[in-house]
Every structure is written in C-alpha cells, then in structure tokens.
C-alpha cells in the first residue's frame, strides 16, 4: 500500500483514528468503588498538545530479565489452530531467548486507558512493557507524557514501515510509536438474514425497514459517526461541530425508530454469522476471518467512503523491559514475520515487503483488497481528523449519551 | 455487632477477678476489629471518595479539583431519569418473577424433596460454577432469532403476545425488554431460592398439620401459617434479587437493545468511556440513595406489620 497511496491519503493518519474491538464486557470486573478510589488529580500537560510532557523511564532490566510483557487485543496475532500456540512468538523466544508474556487484555481503548491511567498518573510501573493503542489513543498518551520515545537503534527494521504511515500527525517521524496492524471499517451483512438482499450503503443500515431491529453499529465513535458523516457527504478529515451533530441526529433517528439492535465492539461477529444481526458496521479483519467459515457473508466498503485506522506499538512510562520490547517490535518489522501474522489475522500489514512474501506463500491473501488494498480501494478510505482535548470530551459525551441511554 | 457488644458486659459482671474481666472486655472488640477495618478501608473510604469525586470538576487532561458542584446531581437526574426508572422497573419485574418461580421450587425442595434435597440444592447453586458473563452470553444463543426457542414461541403465538404488550418490538425474543428481564430473573434466581429454602426448611410441619386439624383448607393453611412464617425468607430473597438487579449492566448490554439501557450501563460508560468521573460518581450515588430509600420503605412495611 506504500507508494501507491493517493496523495489525499498519504496525509498523515491523523490522531483521531478508530479503535476496534470494543468488548466492554471486560469492564465487568471493574467495580465502581475501585475506580472511585483511584486518584483524581490528573497531571496538567498543555491542553492542546503543543508540547507534551515527557515520560519517566525506569531502570531497564532487559539484560538481566529476559522477559517482555505485551498487552494486545484479543485474536490479534497468529495462532496455530492445532496446538493453540502462537508460532511467531515462539520463534521470537527461540531466536532471542526473551520470553513474552502475551496478554489479551486490551479490549477497548477507553477501558484500557481507564485501567492504566491511575498507575501512569502516579508515576508507577503498569506491569506492561509494550501494548498496541489505536492512533487517537496514542495521541493522548503522547500528549500526557505516558509513553516513552523508542530507541530506534534497537529497531533497525523500523525503516520497513510503510511510507504512508511514517509521518503521522500525532507522532511525526514515528518517535514514540510504530504501527502493528491497520484496517477499515465498512459494512458487513448476512444474506441469509437479509433475504439475499445486498446491504451496501449506510442509508440502508439506518433506514431500510426490512432490516429493522437487526442492525448494529460500532460503539467506537470514530467508526460509526465517521461512516455516517461520509455518507452525508462530509469530509471527515475536516468536519465541523454542525457536521458531527447532524450525524448524531441521523443515528438518533434510527435508534428511536427501533432500527438499531445495539452498539457493539467486536462481539458482533457471532450474531452476524448466525443471522441475528442482518447487517452492521464491521472491521475488515474480523469479517475476513468470519468469511473463512461463512463464505456467504458480504462485506463492502461503501461508495461514500470508509474509515481507516491503525493500532500502534507504544512503550509506557516506567516500563521495566524497554530494550526487550524494542527487540520485539524490531522482530515484527521483519516482512517475513509480519506476513505470517497478517496471513492469520487478515488486517492490513504496515510493513513493506510483507505482500511480496505472501504473493509467494498465500496468493489469495495477497490478492484480497481488504488486506492489501490497491489505490482504488484506498481512495475510499478516510481518516477521522484529530480532535482537541476539548472536542474529544464534548464529542464522546454526546456519543455516550446516544449509545448508552 | 449488637449481639457481640451486648455479651461483653454480661460476661464481665459474671467474672469476679479484675484481670479476667479486662480480658473478656477487649477480646470481643479485638475480634471485631478486622471486620471493621475491612469495611472501613473497602467501604467507608471508597464511599467518601466517591461522594467527593461527584462534587469535583475538571477533565482527564487537566485533572479534577473539588468545587462542591452540587449541580451535577441535577444534571445526572435530568439526563438519566428514564434509565433510573427503567432499572427500578426491570429489577422489580425480575424480582416478582423470581419469587413466583422460586417459591414453589424452594417449597418443594424444603418440604417434599426428601433425599433429593441436597441434589436439588446443588443444582440451584450449579450455575455459579461458571461465570455470570458466560451464562448471560448463553442466553444470546438460547433466544437467538434463528434458534428453536424463538421459532417455537412464534408458532404458539407467544411472540405476538409479547409484542402486543410491548415487551418486544418485533417477532423476535432477543434484544428486547423481555430478554433483559428474563436474563435478570435467571441470573438472580438462586439468590431468591436460597433464603426461601432456608426459611421454609425451618418450618415446623406440625403447625400446618395443626391448621388442618382446626379445619383450615390447604389454601388457608398456606395463607395463615406457611406464608407468614416464610416471610423472612421472602424479604431476604427479594432484597438479594432486587438490589443487584437494579444496578446490573451486563444483562441489558448483552440481551437488550438501544431502548433498554439501564443505569448501570450508563455509569459504566461514564466511568470507562467518557471518563466523566464526577457524573458517573453522582449517578452511582443517586442509585445508591434511591435503592436505600426503596429498601427501607419495603423493610419497614414488611418488617413491622407481618414479620412480628
């Protein structure tokens, strides 16, 4: 996807990208009182993100402890279906002697942030050395001084990052972060539940009476509102308050009419495959994985436009094994390793050369437009613009009022 | 607590030697200490923090400072009154349903089950062997639009009936008020059955026999003997069902739709997604006070008129 990207897109992936997998369920265990007891005095970095606070670093124990703690989203890495082991991680340990504690406890950007913020704000170790945050969350973490600069000397492969992802608005020159995977949000539908009808537009999702009560949107604001704004002909790289509100009204109308079944994280996958959900806004990798077992499932990137996001490696403040984390990132920036991951998770690889590897090893994946999009596909993808902290508060409050009431 | 402190003076008057008296004085208090400390650290302190947090203003980026902003309570009530009301309504419906389902079951287990008693008890508790979340997720599959339960309900006209009374909005069962209330009922049913069972098991069958000897019909015997004697179980069971159900957010999230959001879901979203801690704290407090008021009114009514 590197040099073929049209100029409009090579605009940096703004900080306001989307997250995926909003599995709120994980929040169940977090009691209200626990949170209440957390400190409420935040730090006070500059409001608009001009200068960011610098992250504190701990003494690096990488040499003595051959260990790295990595938190990632569920089902976001290659797994051997027979042994349930993770081949690329195993190979990494074999190659470097570094053991990886891989935890799938990153279900949702907001929820994860709520979990680690008190520790970061108090200047404590989070117990994690590296995790993968979505663009807009990386922007916030950098702004608040919660993530450390990468030592690129330990990541010689960093040059393999796709050109379009090199200079992003929230992290020019990739000083703090490197992408793990990217993906689109588009429309998925189950022809069995729609009576064979194709669902290809956002309007259909929100108003088609034959889909009433069988439509879900993503609880991820930037995906759902993004797609609706695009369908309304707005440019999500530079929208206004009025545009945002109009999109919210549109979704509210559908909600009040009983059109929507709910707002989901990636828990839409099972009901979609079963037919309980007829059509929904969905993430590429999820649906490509589902299609392997349910080939009839449809997925479209709407003509009016879809959203594009990345999840990025970051190293939090006070991480105890920073160098090991960097070694790990470097390992995944080897095109051969990344190809192996992408072949399984079916998201978009941010590493140059992974396509060439897959053309040889798994041509069907290499040809898939949702995994290795051509310029024409990419021209439909847009990036939700970065928000100021004030906007972020205002918009997410509006969004929460709509989705959680 | 009252009983422990109550025994202390009684013991001390009985003892004659002063050293012994001193020991018997502090031992009960010492035993009380871990519990009190526990409650202080994990209940009183968080409560105070929560309350003070509700009166703060600020943002995640700039930090929150205490400003005594009482207006947040008005805002919380104004914005989320329907969700509060809905939570109370759903929880009350689930409680009534659980009582209707649980009472006969508890009665049977306590008085008629004989040697099957223990097996049945284990079966009632068995759902707790697996996670709350998994059980609720299972309901998604059970009530699935394309599953056998829903097609059966359609064929006997149940879906039409539910739609007519407004418990569902189409000819499915999932993603409706109906599904949420069913989920709540199911998840909290054991909390209803166990106290009922405990109080019915203690029931002296001779009292019911005596009622029969005095020419009471079985219905009258139940009404004037069994029911009043089981009331402590009923009160405990309804409280144990209603209180957690009112604050629940899993059932409404997994089994409901966008029109069935309960207050727990709002609080969850405000704490974890919007990060509006003051509003979330205020909502938690409103819910707490509301439940407390309802429970006090209920216990007073049930407690003074019928329990004694």
UniProtKB/TrEMBL annotation, chain A:
Cleavable signal peptide: none
Species of the source: Pedococcus cremeus
Annotated localization: Periplasm
Entry keywords, A to Z: Periplasm, Signal, Transport
Superkingdom classification of source: Bacteria
Any GO BP annotation: polyamine transport
Lineage: Bacteria, Bacillati, Actinomycetota, Actinomycetes, Micrococcales
PROSITE patterns: TAT
Protein name: Spermidine/putrescine transport system substrate-binding protein
Positions bound to spermidine: 75
GO cellular component entries: periplasmic space
UniProt keyword Transferase present: no
Membrane spanning residue stretches: none
Major subcellular location class: periplasm
A GO MF term: polyamine binding
Automatic annotation (TrEMBL), chain B:
Domain ABC transmembrane type-1: 84-298
Chain spans, region Disordered: 1-21
Classification via Pfam families: BPD_transp_1
Entries under PROSITE patterns matching the protein: ABC_TM1 (PS50928)
Keywords noted in UniProt: Cell membrane, Membrane, Transmembrane, Transmembrane helix, Transport
GO biological process: transmembrane transport
Keyword Transport applies: yes
Membrane topology: Multi-pass membrane protein
Transmembrane is among the record's keywords: yes
Main location: membrane
Family membership noted in the UniProt record: Belongs to the binding-protein-dependent transport system permease family. CysTW subfamily.
Protein name: Spermidine/putrescine transport system permease protein
Annotated organism of origin: Pedococcus cremeus
